[in-house]
Each structure stands twice: as C-alpha cells, then as structure tokens.
Amino acid sequence: MLNILLPRFCATCNNVLLTMEELLCSYCLSDLPLTHFHTYDDSTVLDKFYGLLPAYQATALLYFIKKGISQKLLHKLKYEDQQNIGTYFGKWLGSELKQIPSYLDVEVVVPVPLHKKRFRSRGYNQVTKFAKQIASQLDASYCEKSLIKISHARSQVGLGRWSRFGSKEVFKLGDPSTIRGKHVLLVDDLIATGATLINCGKELLKAPVSKLSIATLAMS
User: Which residue in 108, 174, 193, 200 has a CA-CA distance of 20 to 30 Å to 180?
Assistant: First the structure.
C-alpha cells in the first residue's frame, strides 16, 4: 500500500523502486562504475598526489563517467539537494573502509568546505552527509571547523587540468586543536586533477596531523 500511495523512484532512471530496493533500482545498482581501489589496495588515486601532497591513503568509490550514472548522481547531489545520495554512498564507502586496516585508525573526518557565499546560494554542502556517514562507520569524529574556504572562485565545471590547478581556490586552517596529531580523512564528492584536495591537504598538515588520507565519492 505504501508503494502505491507513496511510490519511491530510482535516483537515476526514475523507475519505481521495489520494497527491498533503496535509492537505486537493481539494474542501475548493477551498472554502477565501481573502482574497487581500496578493496584491492590499488594506488591509482594515491598516485595523483605523488610529489604534491604526502597522503597516507586515498580512494574513490566510483568512476565519474560523463552522461553515465555517476554523473547523474553527482549532479542531483550537488545541484538538486538530494542529500540522501550522499548518505547512501557514505554508508557504503564507510562500511568498506572499516574492513581495511589502514583506515581503522582514522580519528577525524573533514569535509572539503564551501565558501559562505556558495553555501548561502545552495543552502547546503553536498559533501556533508557523505562525510558524516563515513565518520559514523569508522567511529571517527566529524569536524567542519578544521578547514575554511576564504576565496569564492567560479565553478570548475568545464575547466581543463591546468586551468583547475591555476584556479584561485584558497583554504585556510580553522581550529587546529580538533585534528592536531591525529589521522585525518579528507572527504570530497569528486576528484579530477586533485587540485582542491591538495590545497586543503596542505592546510591540514599545518596543524600538524599524524596522517592525512583522502576519500571521494567519484574520480574522473
């Protein structure tokens, strides 16, 4: 009766979900471009930071594929206020990371922040629910005060690799006492060149932290 009166729809194909399905229908779920990087100790994401940021571990749950399921999900999460997508995949990734020894000692999860102007216009940070679920799964604390974005750069959508590295996104360390001497997991929704995460990571290292790891929902 609930399915008839209050039908739930797949977040990507809009088909009606069955009782046992959550967020995605079985077809879309099976079609997700999973990376399995952390499952197989693959260093693909970590290699993006080689010589640029001394990251301890790094992973992404999905491949970002243009016009594919992952792009649709990220667009709805970022621009259509469907934060349940962040909750769903944060729980998924967090449950996998807690099975991996190198992530078990993560003590603090820090989301990449939005500038206050962007936050006011959007009304939320698309990374928040994703990062909170990862923190919950890892039994770690969640802290938004550790990083502050102090420049309001234009959107990086459509920018090339070198343009992204040249964009003036400026972050500064917030309250260092929340992360000092701890293993910190920096979380974002998407990694392309890694420029944003590098800028954030460099600030967090000033605390200083004992280890800096990175996790994202998708990687292009």
Answer: 193
Question: pLDDT (tens digit, 9 = 90+) per residue, 120-163?
Answer: 999 999 999 999 999 999 999 999 999 999 986 655 555 555 55
Cα 209 to the chain's mean position, in Å? 20
What three-state secondary structure class fits 160? coil
pTM: 0.91
The amino acid that residue 143 corresponds to is C
Tokens 């260093």 identify what position? Answer: 43
* CA proximity to 205, closest of 26, 55, 11: 55
Tell me if 188 sits within 8 A of 219, measured CB to CB: no
Q: How far apart are CA 26 and CA 20, in angstroms?
A: 10
* CA 29 to chain CA mean position, Å: 19
Which domains does the chain carry? Answer: 1-31 (no CATH), 32-219 (3.40.50.2020)
**How far, CA to CA in Å, does 114 sit from each of 38, 42, 144, 174?**
27, 29, 10, 13
Give the model confidence (pLDDT) of 32-90 as tens digits: 999 999 999 999 999 999 999 999 999 999 999 999 999 999 999 999 999 999 999 99
CB 123 within 8 A of CB 82: no
